[in-house]
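hey team, just a heads up i'm posting the complex here instead of the shared drive bc the drive is being weird again. everything in one block, sequence lines first with there labels, then the predicted structure for the whole assembly after. its two chains so it's a bit long, scroll down
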Amino acid sequence: MTSAPAIESPPGAGDARKVSVAQVLVYELRVRDAMSAPPVTAGPADSLRAIQSLMKTHRISGVPIVENGALTGIISIEDIIRALDKGYINDPAAQRMNRQVVTLRDHYSLMRAVAEFDRHDFGRFPVLNSDNELVGILTRGDITNCLMHHLERRAEQALAQEAALRATRAEDEAAHRLVVRAHVRTGDYDSAGKVSQRMRQVLRERGVDPEIRRRAAVVAYEAETNIIIHSLGGEIITTIDPDQVVIEANDVGPGIENIDQAMQEGWSTAGRLPRELGFGAGMGLPNIKRCSDKLDIVSDGKQGTRLRSVIYLHKPGEPT
Amino acid sequence: MKTQTPFSSRTLLADLRAAPLTDDVPQTLSGCYISDLLSDVLAHAEPGVIWVTIQTHRNVISVAATKDIAAVLFTCGRKPEADVIAEAEAEGIALLATPLTTYEAAGKLWTAGLRGDRNHE
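-- predicted structure starts here --
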């Protein structure tokens, strides 16, 4: 992104983008990003009543049962309710726990975790790492929280980016910098001079000396018509500062074979149509050179041509 | 500042048998430049001149505006399209059209007292 107010600005992305961010997130985020860790666990000898107390203290709805570091079962809040109902709340977990525990791996995507919640009717899954160690527990609520958190972070980042962009624009405005950029299409003779026209207008508004103004306009116009006549298309960027104008003309090719030759007055490779229109007199580059205070041209057969002309807006010795 | 040659627009139009294409006709001209090559005009025309040419497409207006040219005289009965005239109006450039050839038009302008715009040392 350029650090300047440009003529063309990308169309604003609306709600469609937010949806796609959430969609991307469920694929990007892993179970390990969302799970509660470390998990609250109990041993097989612990009573259901002790486990009920754990659930109350930690406000959780399921407790994995671990023996010698290995997951052996799980007790859920439903198991506790059943135990209270049937009067075996003092039994040890080992006697009543569900031993067919369905687990998730910590590297699974949240997308896959959501699918597992849909397939099984569980409220939570113990999460194992690649060494089969219990590393966390995941509920639907964990997934929602994680997504909300990351969405919020993305939104904050976007806002910060926007603010930074606004700041550079404000800086440019404070420096009275104006950047006009425009695409130039090959053969589009009818559009020639549009960039130059806008630049002339700005320079006139800023009270730049007419003679200097005309030199800048000639450079911009010749550079623009060069792209139209000789290239496969390109771009003109004029950066107008209080003390100078920089005109950059970049095209995508085919490049100038011999720059020294092209700088000679009268030498032209223009075809019949541009010549009939009064172009192709072989004076474009010489004109640009004569009107520039500084000129750099880089061109090769593959990369196209990059021209950079600088025109100072104050005469030597004149107070700025 | 270049001296502006006061010029009677009525004389100009009568001598050249020219029709004004824009609302404004310049009251003063600093000189004249004749060329059909756009880059040549960009290189050599001075501000405030009347430019005589047979080119009628819209780039003539762009070039004239770039060089602060006051008026463009189209010769040999050529006339630009309406959108070109509209653009000249917007840029404040006067357009005139004459049935005379460029050579004849140049003769009339010289006879009317208009000189070149450059000092040739």
